[in-house]
Amino acid sequence: xxxxxxxxxPVTLSExxxxxxxxxxxxxxxxxxxxxxxxxxxxxxxxxKATKADDKGSNKGFEATYRKETTSFHLEKGSxxxxxxxxxxxxxxxxxxxxxxxxxxxxxx
Amino acid sequence: xxxxSQTPKYLVTQMGNDKSIKCEQNLGHDTxxxxxxxxxxxxxxxxxxNNKELIINETVPNRFSPKSxxxxxxxxxxNSxxxxxxxxxxxxxxxxxxTGQETQYFGPGTRLLxx
Lengths: 109, 115
Hints:
The structure holds two protein chains of two kinds. By secondary structure, chain A is an all-beta fold. Chain A has strands at residues 3-6, 11-14, 19-21, 23-26, 33-38, 44-50, 56-59, 62-65, 75-77, 86-93, 97-99, 103-108. Chain A is globular. The termini of chain A are far apart. Chain B has strands at residues 4-7, 10-13, 19-25, 31-37, 43-50, 53-57, 64-70, 73-78, 87-94, 105-106, 110-114. Chain B is an all-beta fold.
């Protein structure tokens, strides 16, 4: 089927720690892939995207590389901040966005 | 200026009531969407419209009826509200014809609580 699977949370880190949130997808073909972020009490915002294999999306220190061999789009950040605390959603395109279940990140100082 | 706006932001109502949520986008986009986010944060598409034409209608109870008076507005009317309708409803818009390849811009959400 067509779906998106991301690691279960919550993820709890100290400030300046390294972050990885895994995301894999199933699809026919090569869909565009997205990471959206939802800060507490707000709507979703696009964090980054990649539209074809081997593309790397990056924004605000976050990166994700479209890997067709492993059908993955893992989100990474080298040094997280308290302000990065939010829910992160991996998504792929279909007739509309198909989201993973979200991963809650909590960063403490 | 707010790109995608929704009203109301909060809605508390009794079971059995009928309510509407409104959405407007000033981005000039052709496609608008309604998503439902449940208590576990899971997001799922409900409807999408392209230039006032319904293009996605997922398995949603027919108590939910979207209406698009023009391409900048997509409203959601819910009849006979049930406890399970409690959720956050997000409106979104994009430039493409709902293929999902373009970035979708989300509204701030409407938090619906049915008592």
